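[step 3/7] fold_predict: job queued, chain A
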Amino acid sequence: MALQGPIPVTFAQVFPHGCYVVGEVEAVKDFDASTNGRFVQSRDKTTGELVWQVAVMDADPTVKPGQKTVAVKILSPVQPVPPAPMPNLPFTPVEFDHVTATPYVNGAGRLAYSIKVREMRAPRTGPVAPPPAPAKHTSTAGKDVA
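[step 4/7] structure written:
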């Protein structure tokens, strides 16, 4: 099967209505390497980079209240800094770049996703460029194949 490991997705696919920072950026604990009194930060299994975590609130009005807060893992060699708070807003809007989703079965036996990103930033303002069109591949018969 061609799909293995983290699946690249866009920020808009995961958070079509945006999201807001509602917690602090924290180091993720490596439970296997840490011992009583000795904290070891987790590293991504694929890249080896340090893993940080921030709680965000999904702005989608259709999401159930119990599912509004999501933990987003950030792969970064240094602790990421959230964007500056916006005046007159109770929460700070945020966007992420280089987003991946890894499906897994949670403790309740339901499908869930681990969201990992490479960058955290303030939302872009103004028009956003549309995603690029899928690349076309030419077969040996000369027909375009999407």
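[step 5/7] annotate
The chain has a mean pLDDT of 86.
DSSP finds one helix and eleven strands in the chain.
exit 0
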